[in-house]
Fold these 4 entries.
Entry 1:
Amino acid sequence: GGVSGHSVFKHKLVVALVGLPARGKTYIATKLAYYLNWIMVPTRVFNLGEYRRRKLGPESPAQFFHPDNFEGVRQRKVLARQAIEDVLQYLRNDGGVAIFDATNSTRERRMWLQRILNKAGVRVVFVESVCDDDQQIRNNIMDVKVRLPDYGALSVDAAVADFEERIKYYRMRYEPLSSEQDADCSFIKLVDVGRSVLLHRVQGYLQMRIARFLMSLHIKPRHIYITRHGESEFNTVGKIGGDSSLSPRGMEYAQRLKQFMDEQELPNLRVWCSSLKRTIQTAQNFDDVESWKALDELDAGLCDELTYKEVEEQFPDVYRDRATDKYWTRYPRGESYADVVQRLEPRILDLEQAQENVLVVCHQAVARCLLSYFQQKSDLASQLPYIKVDLHTVFKITPIPYGNLIEVFPLGIDAVSTYVPRIPTALLDSPAISTGGRGDDGG
Amino acid sequence: GGVSGHSVFKHKLVVALVGLPARGKTYIATKLAYYLNWIMVPTRVFNLGEYRRRKLGPESPAQFFHPDNFEGVRQRKVLARQAIEDVLQYLRNDGGVAIFDATNSTRERRMWLQRILNKAGVRVVFVESVCDDDQQIRNNIMDVKVRLPDYGALSVDAAVADFEERIKYYRMRYEPLSSEQDADCSFIKLVDVGRSVLLHRVQGYLQMRIARFLMSLHIKPRHIYITRHGESEFNTVGKIGGDSSLSPRGMEYAQRLKQFMDEQELPNLRVWCSSLKRTIQTAQNFDDVESWKALDELDAGLCDELTYKEVEEQFPDVYRDRATDKYWTRYPRGESYADVVQRLEPRILDLEQAQENVLVVCHQAVARCLLSYFQQKSDLASQLPYIKVDLHTVFKITPIPYGNLIEVFPLGIDAVSTYVPRIPTALLDSPAISTGGRGDDGG
Ligand SMILES: Nc1ncnc2c1ncn2[C@@H]1O[C@H](COP(=O)(O)OP(=O)(O)OP(=O)(O)O)[C@@H](O)[C@H]1O
Ligand SMILES: Nc1ncnc2c1ncn2[C@@H]1O[C@H](COP(=O)(O)OP(=O)(O)OP(=O)(O)O)[C@@H](O)[C@H]1O
Ligand SMILES: [Mg+2]
Ligand SMILES: [Mg+2]
């Protein structure tokens, strides 16, 4: 009998976006892709607009999208066929989920898609974004459309006009998904940026997780702040894990942090900490702090309360495995970074969904996992465990179109460095190597 | 600053069911109430039918529900008013969520409800169940309606006919919830037993968790099997926690378990285990086992690998706290039962949602948490940590109307007992008390 934590994801899936232009399809595709990659479901976006620009050159005026433009229709069908071939190729290799980011606005196109994919043994779930709020659509066009390569040197006004014409042409043939007419399809319909959500025949673990994620999204402006606890007594002696109190400098940070947050002048703020003393003390100047055990530091198991030097001496295998594959290596009786990501997932849904501003006071490894989600980096497993998260520093996250702005605020209070650099693999044969990192909380 | 893990639930909420008779409203209300209580949100169901039977006597023929029966309409309004008064009383005390289980089938009734509740500072989310599958409705009537006290000694056929007439009368005035006409309401509409789900203005953490739970429900027949790992080496020497292998008798159980499950002749089966050796070995005769770290045994922290006697000697405070409040007491650097319930919650959603049969191979404390969810006991915090879950025993759970049938199969292979009985508080002053329990895995 084979044991695996991931067999639940063995089914290959295509998520096909549906919707008029400027309805947030690419926004949704991008967020979903990073989310799925973050929970280690290999996912890639196939954007039909990029196929068009690659094949037909950067500029496409609205006329290209007119339903009676026979040549335009033919060319777009050829491009779709090409994209779907690439989708299937990706899934035949080690891809898990392919996100097909196109308008897919007619029932005929969707049935064609479903037929080809089902024949290849792949399931499809459609994700439609509907929005009839004109102001929202105009904002979207200004935010992300007028700067498209499609418009080369066109003026903003001309670009807006052209884009609105493009929408008009798509609308002529647009057939929204419906529980009656598409009774046999699996689909998720997002109406007016999450005001309502319709789930239809959403089946199985993976589709359900996708639905839960999508229904948590919103685009109201807000900020998320992430910081580690203030310097702890263990930090100062280079021990990992434990449940020590703050050092005097750590206490100073707790005060400085409150002051910094006050200066942000936020209309509302939720504050989260972990169950460990050092984050509770760091958050102690705030009201109504929520303590989440899921935010506790990566559990170093039998290595808890050791220094890195002691880990190297007493658990040389663990030390070596972490040097070569830090993300997947589980401390004996403890956790790996992969484990931490899994237990943090409900916190990420909660952060996505929160309408308030949130300050998360956590730990080095936890901050790395959270930041990696918002940074939307690729090659996560190899990068995540080495993200630099200094003590006494606030990371301010602001959602922007297709991503997040991350600003770093060192609050100017000295602290030890707990960063352990990647060990060059060539050096791993030498028994004398020690990184000298000081108490990075098991991270 | 106050720290708490529960301030997220500070908002009082009424969940008001909506739907024709025999649409599963009471079924949904019951499941939701047990789920919320299980995650420690104090919740109570207020069933209008019970108010009617208490006040007007057990028998109510269909004519009572005719919309032109003036006296019937008046009486039902009085009953609703009374129920809502009790709802508000409950929420003013320490209630968190009140579930109002009634048909609430007209817009007028719902607006009345919303007005009263909002005036009292309480939010409402409506949960509507729609089902037009005649066969399903007839099954529901046969399953749970013909035996209602309403029908006294009536024959089954007469009872069915009367109940169908009652539905007809409700249908005359029924106004389903709609995104357009009820644009400002928060509601969750379940169509055809979860085939589609519409979420409208579902806001905030608690409403979102309720939505996630409801969208996971289905009523296809299947079974869930729960067992602990086979007897481990630590079990035989009375140590808690650890990551030991199975004893020879434990190995025998692994084989017997496979045989037992084969004899169940299930068309499909998912098998879950934890990340610890003893569950992996117990599940080793099955194919495609999924290993979930969230199923690991309650973490005994600094008490890991001790015997109960040693815990009592080395951590007398922990020992005493667990004796008086086992559910909430967290082992130093480890977990409480409350912590385990929180990390198991995604597994419960997955079990609810799974269409396949599932065998969960886990640990004593984890099995207690899972079983307590399916047993739907009240007074959870005081009962849960003492549920008897013997080694080498399979618990077979079968969903039945409003609850679960739990069958217990001891598979006849000897094992040590790991049960630690409740310590009478009177004895706690005596330093000589020891329960002599043997290695109950931290539970
Ligand atoms: N559900 C939504 N409904 C409407 N707008 C949204 C939604 N989600 C995100 N947005 C906004 O949409 C903008 C991004 O539009 P995006 O490029 O994703 O549209 P698109 O549907 O991919 O358009 P196109 O068909 O031209 O590729 C962002 O400004 C984002 O804030
Ligand atoms: N979403 C659903 N749609 C239809 N039937 C369901 C649903 N969920 C559960 N059921 C089935 O409904 C039956 C229970 O009906 P229940 O008593 O809950 O109906 P009710 O709506 O409360 O009726 P009444 O208005 O007479 O109180 C069970 O047999 C259960 O399997
Ligand atoms: Mg796009
Ligand atoms: Mg009922």
Entry 2:
Amino acid sequence: MANTADIAKKQLKVLVPLAQGCEELEAVTVTDLLTRAGMQVVTAGLDSNPVTASRGMVLIPQTTIDKVMDDDFDLIVLPGGLPGADYLQNSEQVQTKLKQMAANNKTVAAICAAPKALASAGLLDGKAITSYPGSLDDSEINNMNYSNNSVVVDGNIVTSRGPGTAMDFALTLIEKHLGKDKRNEVEAPLMRPIN
Amino acid sequence: MANTADIAKKQLKVLVPLAQGCEELEAVTVTDLLTRAGMQVVTAGLDSNPVTASRGMVLIPQTTIDKVMDDDFDLIVLPGGLPGADYLQNSEQVQTKLKQMAANNKTVAAICAAPKALASAGLLDGKAITSYPGSLDDSEINNMNYSNNSVVVDGNIVTSRGPGTAMDFALTLIEKHLGKDKRNEVEAPLMRPIN
């Protein structure tokens, strides 16, 4: 968890790759909330076309993945959705970036079907994780500590289940990096129902 | 509430005006979930430019509001966010469409700051409603039955509070038009936490 010195240091930079067929609600929940928390969110397409998301919304990423391969990021966050998550899994550049960031102890996060891209990068063996039910092969899950919790944090790996957990996923990332007070500051004005 | 005959009849058509500075999480939650429910969602910009939403995501609407003024819709749903909601309030075309649809007993829905556009169209007097706290003038609220519930349905007027209530807002619209079974069918795969 973040300490005050880290928090004051610099604006955190987040890479959100946007594949064709990504789940727009997950993508936008992440970019919206991390932006509200004061992070610099960089959306990067896998190609130079506008992204048609899984339920039809068309998004224009800020840049493309090839242009940010040499940039430093504090977090990489993968939205789910199909076929979006398959494209993330099959993208050589995304796989390279995931491995590079994990090796440098940066936060690697994925929601819904996107943990499969982390599995392909070899980042989930022995880890506590979750994902959209059925989106990982049983043979892969055997090597993981798989749960049905909404959000699972294991060191620098953060995973979550689907559109209905995207808000908790984003708030967990905010709390992990910027502390509980910042999480509360972002969460309160969302007007979530009080349970 | 919908009966079986209505449900079978035809695909429901939904107009979602997208103003510059709309809240992207609210816009996308509505378009995503109503699309999942099988409705035909038409996103319409107030101008012909891509829409830069309130937290930076850039969306491309399918059409512009001037091109759909003569089209029939079953629902109109206004996302909130600022300055987006102000643009909706000040758009002559949006105001015309709101009045036209309300007069024809179509569903008129707004979330967050967007109920102010309904107030300007004269649709909220004497109605049970909610909105983002502080987004309506006190003098306006005096004529309404204002509550802090997450989603409020009063006849054909449906209102809600903010990004954290957008999912319940969309699911309520689905249930109102397509019934509880369809709502459940859309809600289950979202993987919302079980309280």
Entry 3:
Amino acid sequence: MSPDDGGFPTDYEIAQSVQTEHIADVVEPFGLARDDLELHGEEKAKVKLDAIERITEESDADSDLVLVTGMTPTPLGEGKTVTTVGLGQAFNRIGQDALIAIREPSLGPVFGVKGGAAGGGYSQVLPMEDINLHFTGDLHALTSAHNLISTMLDNHIKQHNELDIAVNWVNWPRAIDMNDRVLREIVIGLGGDVTGVPREDGFILTAASELMAVLCLADSIQDLKERIGRIIVAYDRDGDVVTVDDIDATGAVTILLKDALKPNVVQTIEGTPAFVHGGPFANIAHGTNSLIADDVASSLADVLVTEAGFGSDLGAEKFMNIVCRFGDMEPDAVTLVASVRALKYHGYDMWPPDVDELESENVEALERGFENLDRHVSNLRKFGVEVVVAINRFPEDSDEEVQTVIDHCEDELGVAAAESNVFSDGGEGGVELAEKLTDAIEADSDFAPLYDVDASIKEKIETVATEIYGAEGVEYHGSAEDDIERLTDLDFDDVPVCMSKTFHSFSDDASKKGAPEGWTLEVTEVYPSAGAGFLVVLTGDVLTLPGLPEEPAAAGMDIDADENISGLF
Amino acid sequence: MSPDDGGFPTDYEIAQSVQTEHIADVVEPFGLARDDLELHGEEKAKVKLDAIERITEESDADSDLVLVTGMTPTPLGEGKTVTTVGLGQAFNRIGQDALIAIREPSLGPVFGVKGGAAGGGYSQVLPMEDINLHFTGDLHALTSAHNLISTMLDNHIKQHNELDIAVNWVNWPRAIDMNDRVLREIVIGLGGDVTGVPREDGFILTAASELMAVLCLADSIQDLKERIGRIIVAYDRDGDVVTVDDIDATGAVTILLKDALKPNVVQTIEGTPAFVHGGPFANIAHGTNSLIADDVASSLADVLVTEAGFGSDLGAEKFMNIVCRFGDMEPDAVTLVASVRALKYHGYDMWPPDVDELESENVEALERGFENLDRHVSNLRKFGVEVVVAINRFPEDSDEEVQTVIDHCEDELGVAAAESNVFSDGGEGGVELAEKLTDAIEADSDFAPLYDVDASIKEKIETVATEIYGAEGVEYHGSAEDDIERLTDLDFDDVPVCMSKTFHSFSDDASKKGAPEGWTLEVTEVYPSAGAGFLVVLTGDVLTLPGLPEEPAAAGMDIDADENISGLF
């Protein structure tokens, strides 16, 4: 408890109160030896690639995979990561050897809005300040690798441009892990001949780089190198693709990423090992942690709990249609994180959110919000997986509200539901959820992706739009029709589609809450992520470089002479 | 030996042939316990700050300080770092507990020209590929910290600009650790109101950031924080300074640098501990490794061997006039690295260098080059220190050439000189040099900086210009006169001057070899590095963001499935 206010301790206070074990001791019971690790201090380690090769080859384990997803997010956060971490702890409490795999946070957003991305309360991963800052340097390696491609590209253009690259058709922006909005649109190469050729450019957040997606899908150095080489960075004046291979950057970029490919392992507050590795956008990319972490974790555990970004219409859809396909995996059960306040938010059709309203009891508003929950449940069932709703309980929720949700799930939807108190109670607060998920795992499931990769590009887009988003149809604007035609001609049509849509709504209009009907999805552009192996389908503007708010969290941060940090969480 | 060509093995082959010890075992005999270290794998560690506090407080050691500097550099490299590393090894061979402190390389330049910055041959620090790539993340932390200041600044301007910052008077560019010349001059903030206020901007190399200078001068977290807070990032419309404190970024920036402040320790190929920490430009900054590394190393060793950047007119001058003053240190002896080919290069007045000519015997050209060597020796003696000339031997040098240099030093200059073969023979090749330096250390010395900090700004500039560079006087152009007047009015005149001059010549004209006479130094601008605590004096253009050459080294790099790297060295 906080000594000052007698209230619930902060995440940082909880983290500081825990005596962590050496990470080598934490992972040893799961079959990772000290020699399998590259230590980063005593609490963080990377798993060596030869150890991964050995473990995945030796393993005949068919571990159970539990995916954590959520209803349409509110700006307040529903607690998907905290549920993932707590659930991993809970499975261990009921006698299952469970591991956790989650994304690693970006540094940039840390300085914008207060609050870390490593769980919270008694369900967080440690050392939380490291994980939210430099961690093991993966994001920095990605930033450098991304910008090395940019540098090699502009240097090629400056030197003789033998590839005849069209300077207005460069598809590789620069990257930074900082919420620095003034870099979104810039002009580079000013200052005369000696600095090269001026052109329009812009920066994206490192997490939005295709390199991040590639890192999260590669299963070895060789695979990583091949994927990097295929990335399309520009077109020449004939309209032919220019790849990373073409500008001779593949080897050097792979060298920069060789350590970033190794999954990071840390521990939760209760000593459950957690892989925290990779963090691609769930918007222009697939939004889940690395496949290599999933691979090694599922070879070591009875149960692997992992998480997909944003709501189930984005993260889970991509997990099922893209990640499971590429990784040859299937989820044995899915838990959909809901909260009383998120249901009320959708019930009020509230925009922006009014926190006081959301924290006051209102069963009627809550019930109006069920339409959002219901569509998520119904969508997930289309993949043939068992769903358990997790109600992540906040202190302000009334018992009646929570019971209303449980009754709705069980009686109206016919799905299991459990209150989750992992934030306040750690693994113990997730035991009921873990037990219901165990039942779900044991039930027969019949998983399948929603579309065939060999379907036409439009067919795949339309399947997601109508089956998942609830659109009546799809309209193509801007370059979309031409893009689809060109990509089909290039034989780049037999891959999954990675839909880029606002996460604030099932629809492509961020202001529409609940479960919007009677609308049409508007596709504006389709482009290949050839290294990742999917087509990105843009619907409306995508913000790939956020900005800082008027009162950035950074302004309230401090560190004392003894390295105690304040204001970070 | 290289199995392929029978010739001298490459740096990488030599590095791979060595079985390193665990870094904790390497430093233990010097008094660093395992608990004093934060391990980064088995070969790299950071020293904890509380250990440094304990060690420097407990120590009554007055270790001997040997500075390694050089004559005016040639594009071929004279081997200053290799001499520093080899000399540390040599001192250990003659029974002295010697430690080494050198700068850590920037990542950016690695992709431009082949060749690492961690010594070479049998006098290199390991693990050389790590040290030249991400190492322990210090450069990445600096890049992030630097750009957080930029982001906070532009966000302040966008939100309400309450400080009334003049957008055309921002003195804080952005930073990147990549030789990406198209970012030298850019326009940011395009795209309308939502992205902020458009303005001209540019990127510098991270090593050129004032944060790097600050990190290398701070002796604690508290000192680091205070220095960061004082950094001047812009001026308001009244011409008053705007600092990092003013934009509320001090705490967050310090948090990002808390680990980077901890010195890195690794080992040489012969197992001598080497601190590799900090790498400020020797041009707009002071160009030596961190003071905190010097502090801890000199508390642990009998002899500390350290290195200053570029020729003695830049690096050594700043070491004596700035670093020793700030760090309350004095060099007990200086070794000036010369080479036969550098002497011939100056003797030919060659520009650009002709390698074939330089590798052919020519005693006459060599002798003409002595004027460069002589001025360096004479300059160093003005600080009251003993000088030993180290002739870094290359395979092509003839015995007569080497002997001619030794005779010249001993007979004409009256300084000791020794041939150094540390590249080919490791520490054994530096024993004679170490012995002569031991004599120099034992001789009486009478060290003093060359000017008083209380002298006027112009007096300090003119002292360096005439006494060190050999100029006849100084002319002030551009804003220089106004700058000096304003800085004097602001009481910012009682600090050392950090001269920014080309390193290719004693003069401000890069093409003038030897020891130019009859010229006048042209000062164009003077600005404060308030966090570092000196004034930067610009003479001509300073390149703070290099570019890649036509055939970048990156294009020849590769990595195989077993993580073996090629083309990096």
Entry 4:
Amino acid sequence: MPSARLLTYAQRAENHHNPAAKALLETIGRKKSNLCVSVDVTKQADFLRIIDVVGPYICLVKTHVDVIEDFEFSMIDRLKELSAKHDFLIFEDRKFADIGNTVALQYSSGVYKISSWSHITNAHPIPGPGIITGLSSIGTPLGRGLILLAEMSSKGTLASGAYTSQAVQMARAHRDFVIGFIAMRRMDGVGAEGLDSTDLANEDFLILTPGVGLDAKGDSMGQQYRTPREVVLESGCDVIIVGRGIYGKGNDADIQAQAERYRKEGWAAYEERISVQAS
Amino acid sequence: MPSARLLTYAQRAENHHNPAAKALLETIGRKKSNLCVSVDVTKQADFLRIIDVVGPYICLVKTHVDVIEDFEFSMIDRLKELSAKHDFLIFEDRKFADIGNTVALQYSSGVYKISSWSHITNAHPIPGPGIITGLSSIGTPLGRGLILLAEMSSKGTLASGAYTSQAVQMARAHRDFVIGFIAMRRMDGVGAEGLDSTDLANEDFLILTPGVGLDAKGDSMGQQYRTPREVVLESGCDVIIVGRGIYGKGNDADIQAQAERYRKEGWAAYEERISVQAS
């Protein structure tokens, strides 16, 4: 099998065994959108309004439910309704980073009960494989998928080099539940020295990439931006994550226009990638 | 000035400029307790009851408020009352691990408003220095202190070697707000190649150490345990963090007995450390 980079999203959906990864790949193909919008606002009403506006243009919404001041669990019901109405998946960007026993509680319990509604969540590999075991004990029976942070988009990040390789190795050992990475590029072959090449060719990790922007180069707290073309075509990533670049400006019509703009750019970069590889 | 390891907690309190670090060191000296109890239960009533029982024996309580199912903000008022009643500080073990803009919101806002009640919190250095800038923008005006995770106690952790050195270097560049580390040993001299030795001798990072237990060697999800003596005397750490080893067994009298047992062990190890160094 050729590298996942050379396949269409639909082809990859057929081959994937994890229910969340399969659903995401199918959604991307069906909606012609590899756009994930990251909605970091602090009021329920803004949160739901923005998601309703961008819904038609996205495959995935990325949330930080713990920044919402007037959170009530009924907001999750509204979010699930929007997910059904507009056909997108939900990704709570929790960045779990604790030992197995603790993350299992944080994932399943508490006010947010993330595992009950978020198709995909993510974790830092720092604590070691126990974090995957802990999250998988909750998420696998529910058909959820986990994204590991192999790299970050922020300035001076320590997620590079040997750290990144170890993250990928940890993911490879848990391919049923770990469906991909937060990374700036494809991870094909990373940390794979000495492994069987046939086995490697069959692996399909989704690459979700933050720090995507068309109009800004960075913020004052170390975030750095690249364009959809750089991310999808040049670096071979699968999903572009855009935040303030979409919802940060103007009224609903502006937000809608920005969402469509990013969807179009991200999809064009993917189509070019596929055509380049085919020629 | 000699290494912090050679000084009493009271001497270190006098020299420290960060209000949270100063208060913690004073509390340790006043209560003759370097014990932090980590309370990971999922019901408000259990949470408050355990803290009321262990309160007299601890300098610090470590919380994961996001695992409490029936959380209401009034629980925080009760926690603050217990903190005043029993004279201990509060450490929300949030393990922030996102970019600066996001962690600033997660720290100050949302349901939990952590910065409004937690004297100390912690963060992974992975995202780069922006995470400190983001948290400091909220915490410094409130007199809070930040602990960086330089190491972890779990099996297969990636927080070692160059990662740990970079964490310490990041802390050194923000000594007003970063007051110490989660680590398994002192960080004196780590990542300090080429730095001025007088300046280094004046630094005083608190070392808070998880994975402490007297009766167990580990759990099924990769947590590993060492004794208070190993941690405080041999490795020079300042605060021992104990969880299920204290509250995991029996009734209130048992919990109280375990808390006093760990307090005594931790304090004896500290007194031996000081006397060994003085002789």
